[in-house]
Hints:
C8orf32 fold, globular
Amino acid sequence: MRLKISHRTEYRYDIPVPYALQRLRLVPRTGRTQTVHSWSLKVDGANEEARFVDHFENETRLVSIAGDATMIGIDAWGEVETFDTAGVFGEHKGFAPLWLFQYQTALTAPGDGIRELAASIGEGSELDRLHRLMNTIQNDVVYTIGATHAGTTAEEALGQGTGVCQDHAHIFAAAARLLGFPARYVSGYLMMNDTVDQAASHAWAEAHVLGLGWVAFDASNGISPDERYVRMAVGRDYRDAMPASGIRLGPAEEQLAVAITVEQ
């Protein structure tokens, strides 16, 4: 499937920002599940300082803002051909060792709820257990926009029984690690069946299975990602793979607007 994607992120400030530095992970890479035919990244109101592939193998850009900027506009767009591999991404690559993904982070640290979830999965093959985990999360944590925020932990989202794709991915990663699987967070895009316009990018999780490598699970939709998914970045959790992150100086109040379209 060939997908056309447009992603606009706009930051507006009530007073000029003297300095800011942002790290962007908005460039997809060609791999087993996708071929990038064209991609552009444009930043208005900022200067590119560096570009590199990070230790998770994410294409990364560093941009800085200095002077009297009151608006930063980030546009990413292009076409990606995708392939249905039944969720199998394949062997582990990159500078980050596989064992790193067995360790929990602040966003995935398990409490009693995550431990009980992992213990409830029971026996079976590795894939059976991981699919059972995905389906349990989908049933127990209702997809609810606005119920959580970027700093909500997996334990908190599971406890309240509501969340979004970020929370589902964190819960899956946290529980999978307790079950003995290296697990990671994936950010990207999903072509929806009923709409082209979207308010946010998508996220899912991957677990490393012997003999298969990384296998993807989207607990928000209860499936292993297929040709409707485009992957952008991976990491131990959202903070490692978020599309844009950074710091800024000064007391300015920030307003964020995001507009995304994904279509065949």
